[in-house]
Amino acid sequence: MDSDDEFMSGLSSQDEYFGGVEESDDGSLGDEFDEDNPDVGFSQDKDMKPGKKAYEVDFKVFSPEDIQSHQDKQIDEVSAILGQPSEATAILLRHLRWNKERLIEAYMERPDSVLETAGLGPESAQAPTTKVVKGFTCEICYDDTPRLETYALKCGHRYCVDCYRQYLAQKIKDEGEAARVQCPTNGCHRIVDAKSLDLLVATELKSRYQVLLTRTYVDDKENLKWCPAPNCEYAIECGVKKKELGRIVPTVACACKHRFCFGCTLSDHQPAPCSLVKQWLKKCEDDSETANWISANTKECPKCSSTIEKNGGCNHMTCRKCKHEFCWMCMGLWSEHGTSWYNCNRFEERSGLDGRDAQAKSRQSLERYLHYYNRYANHEQSAKLDKDLYNKTERKMTGLQSTSGMSWIEVQFLDTASQALQTCRQTLKWTYAFAYYLQRNNMTEIFEDNQKDLEMAVENLSEMFEKPTAELAALKVDMMDKTSYCNKRRVILLDDTAQNLKTGEWKFNVDVTMGA
Amino acid sequence: MAALPKRIVKETERLMAEPVPGISAVPHEDNLRYFDVMIHGPSQSPYESGVFKLELFLPDDYPMTPPKIRFLTKIYHPNIDKLGRICLDVLKSTFHTPFLQTPTRLTRAGNWSPALQIRTILLSIQALLGAPNPDDPLANDVAQRWKEDEQAAIQTAREWTRQYAKA
Ligand SMILES: [Zn+2]
Ligand SMILES: [Zn+2]
Ligand SMILES: [Zn+2]
Ligand SMILES: [Zn+2]
Ligand SMILES: [Zn+2]
Ligand SMILES: [Zn+2]
């Protein structure tokens, strides 16, 4: 397919789009906030973008403030329906893990027992206070000082305020519990309600407590997940369900720029479905010793045998000694790459092999695995080397800015190119895990062609980073062209694989449904 | 050493004044948070007529966190491991891990409450000797055997009791 048509055909793929449109039955944010209050949500709404590709899914990014306001809004709504104050409603919602429908249904049927099990007895509207009780001994600290301030929930289990505070601090600070803290009495399941917590929790713990409450909201919802990037406080909403993960790879991008899979929260692994990724990583771990030797950074020139060290991401190698040009991955002649019989990415099954020879068979199966692992590991390694090289280049460019007269804006093409390399290598890496599990059929060739095209595009761009810094300014236009070509090839590959995954056209030699 | 909290003083006094039948707990003179414990095996259990030694320690944040306790006498029991550690709900705090990013966000909930006491804990342990629970095992090999061949497992428990838990 021509890459230009591809951009046009994107428009039609929207109709058959499949992730996230399913009617949600769990009171998801989707139907509440999109329609009623489109302004509440965060930006990044991919719905608005025309021409969505088959590999794209709908998702929204929520800031901590968004999460808070969504909670508040849902509490208000349910509070109005149940006729309960918002504190009690919040407890009820948290108690039923934010399943609004289930709560309303259960409450309509038997309000008293719902209130009771959520830790809200009768008269929960009354404001809580501490009390001095005559002749009181605290069962936790055994203090019996007269005029001791004490507190009890509606269950009547009374302890001194100091013990209560310590108990709550222990729960909030050390155990990370906030929404479902129970009465300190053994076996009493009364929940410490929000008002009591407000009264008793030390000021310095209040923010931590709020954070914990907010977190349960996200933790309890199937369509919300925390961004796994370190220290990121954003959450992503996506409607793709676990049972769909054999047919879609839901990659989402956080406001912090981290791209990850909503299904398994690992870094972006398109086009490989979650369960393949899981199985592949397990296999690599199990076989790591056998496979170790190949990821080494040095190889011998296939012609003159001098040792060659790879110091950039590019796989087009030129021997310093004999000028022999070869491919780092397959050690074949570079001149043959890019021609019609280029087959660096494809593993050739040796059909002539005697099927009865078990040893040969197992050797072939190891070779087959190593073929894919080698390329997988190589792209991972190359991505790192690309990045190193870019960082070095960037430093040099910054130095050159003054002499070359180029502005900061003008050197941004390097950054864009480097980003594209990273993303494309990430995709390429996973195409090899994908291919390892793929059964050959008439479509695998198209896949391999797409893989090859992307690989060539990537290597061509990667090679440019090895040019002397002084020459880079002159290569700007060329580099920008190569960057956009890389991105285009990636879109084509991902769109094709996602399309076939969705329609179940790919056949794998393992189970791809999640939970396998 | 910091003054002993009133709670520990009172609990210790009561343990001495009204001991629980079949159980003794004596604090060390040089460390009043450390107790030598003896539990008699309940009658009609494989541990009958055995006397089991345990050590019990009250951490600084006791009673907000549970006492640390372990068997010193070797015992064949599905809920007690080789090191004498005990799998008992009331000996565990609840640990939620809300900042962990993985979907498994909750470890098994514990049932410790600050209103529980040394006395109640020791009674629970004695009860556990009377009713082993191989479905919630700590010692997996023992639990396995307990499920596959209960008679043989009970026999081993009896032998170990005779051999290691002499009165
Ligand atoms: Zn209570
Ligand atoms: Zn107290
Ligand atoms: Zn993030
Ligand atoms: Zn995934
Ligand atoms: Zn050479
Ligand atoms: Zn090659």
Radius of gyration of chain B: 17 Å
* Shape call of chain B: globular
The greatest interface here is: A-B, 27 and 28 residues
DSSP helix count of chain B?
Answer: 4
Radius of gyration of chain A: 30 Å
Distance between the first and last residues' Cα of chain B: 35 Å
What is the count of β-strands of chain A? 12
Number of helices of chain A: 16
Largest sheet of chain A: 3 strands, antiparallel
Widest sheet, order of strands of chain A: 1-6-5
The counted number of beta strands of chain B is 4
Global geometry of chain A: elongated
Secondary-structure class of chain B? alpha+beta
Q: Can you characterise this structure?
A:
The complex is a heterodimer of chains A (516) and B (167). Chain A is mainly alpha-helical and 516 residues long. Chain A is built from 16 helices and twelve strands. In chain A, the strands form five sheets. Chain A has a three-stranded antiparallel sheet. In chain A, strands 2-3-4 form a three-stranded antiparallel sheet. Chain A is elongated, with a radius of gyration of 30 Å. The two termini of chain A are 34 Å apart. The model of chain A is unreliable at 1-49, 291-296 and 351-356 (pLDDT under 50). Chain B is of the alpha+beta class. Chain B contains four helices and four strands. In chain B, a hairpin with a 6-residue loop joins strand 1 and strand 2 (34-40). In chain B, helix 3 (140-148) crosses helix 4 (150-164). Chains A and B meet through helix 7 and helix 9 of A and helix 1 of B. The structure holds zinc ion (ZN) (6 copies). Chain A: This is RBR-type E3 ubiquitin transferase. Chain A: Residues 22-38 have a biased composition (Acidic residues). Chain A: Residues 1-49 are annotated as: Disordered.
Record keyword descriptors for this entry.
heterodimer, A: mainly alpha, 3-stranded antiparallel sheet, elongated, B: 167 residues, alpha+beta, 4-stranded antiparallel sheet, 4 helices, 29% helix, globular, binds zinc ion
